[in-house]
């Protein structure tokens, strides 16, 4: 397996420093629950739209909509629309029409994937480039999450990790690592995620630094802005992810490790996908009248 260097990865795992653990009489700074439901905000279209570009964009989005209606969510063969043949003006209009949603991802490898959810949950813009930055493919995928987020992370990972002897000061991290290794070794397809909440454990800075070093960094990082700022980072241990929530000051307030195919905060849900079909149909009608 190819090892990934933390120095080569754009967003490092952040460990809590001194003072990150609450005092006995101090309340934990939990991530606040949303006070209200977010409402769908359609993207902003340009003031002037070229008729030919509009016709191309509408035809492309209508094809996507038809494929989404015909597909059963969660089954193989999800809708994919190749945008490479489109001219620049039509592509720009499609990008404007789809907007940017709350989840984005970057996946490294022989080629690099940049993935951005649109304002329509479960509709993703996926751009693949070579190491020189040359664009190799440009597409729309409609699914819970583009599959390569999971497959590339797993291909670059190890089934087990031989941990070095922890240095002085490390206390509870070896027990956490053993728990993760056991969860990975005994995991069955479709099982619930095994979550270790480091925020609630007596972990000192040496513990956290050792875990970061031993677990390593995988090729994938995902950012989600759904409920606060969440950073999901693949480790070098198979199916093991850092899931970390930050407040508006970029202070770590919830720090977990999850053993699962993909943490639940990242992919789109079936209900949201169904809503996106209805909203996309309405938005195409708006685009036709623009």
TrEMBL record:
Q: Which family does it belong to?
A: Belongs to the HupH/HyaF family.
Which is a Pfam family this sequence falls into?
A: HupH_C
- What this protein is called in its record is Hydrogenase-1 operon protein hupH
Top-rank taxon: Bacteria
Q: Which residues form the HupH hydrogenase expression protein C-terminal domain?
A: 57-158, 170-286
């Amino acid at each position: 397996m190819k090892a990934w260097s933390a120095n080569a990865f754009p967003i490092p795992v952040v460990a809590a420093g001194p003072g990150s653990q609450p005092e006995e009489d101090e309340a934990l700074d939990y991530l606040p629950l949303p006070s209200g439901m977010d409402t769908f905000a359609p993207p902003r279209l340009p003031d002037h739209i070229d008729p030919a570009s509009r016709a191309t964009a509408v035809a492309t989005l209508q094809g996507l909509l038809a494929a989404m209606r015909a597909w059963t969510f969660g089954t193989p063969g999800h809708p994919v629309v190749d945008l490479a043949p489109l001219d620049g003006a039509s592509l720009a209009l499609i990008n404007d029409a789809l907007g940017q949603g709350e989840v984005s991802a970057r996946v490294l490898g022989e080629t690099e994937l940049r993935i951005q959810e649109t304002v329509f949950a479960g509709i993703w813009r996926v751009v693949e480039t070579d190491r020189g930055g040359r664009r190799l493919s440009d597409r729309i995928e409609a699914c819970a999450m583009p599959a390569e987020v999971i497959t590339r992370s797993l291909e670059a990972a190890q089934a087990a990790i031989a941990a070095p002897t922890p240095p002085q000061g490390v206390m509870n991290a070896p027990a956490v690592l053993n728990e993760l290794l056991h969860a990975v070794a005994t995991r069955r397809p479709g099982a619930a995620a095994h979550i270790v909440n480091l925020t609630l454990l007596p972990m000192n800075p040496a513990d956290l630094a050792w875990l970061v070093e031993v677990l390593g960094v995988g090729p994938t990082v995902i950012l989600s802005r759904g409920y606060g700022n969440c950073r999901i980072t693949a480790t070098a241990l198979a199916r093991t992810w850092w899931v970390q929530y930050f407040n508006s000051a970029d202070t770590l307030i919830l720090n977990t490790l999850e053993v699962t195919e993909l943490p639940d905060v990242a992919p789109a849900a079936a209900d949201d996908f169904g809503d996106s079909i209805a909203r996309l149909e309405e938005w195409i009608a708006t685009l036709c009248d623009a």
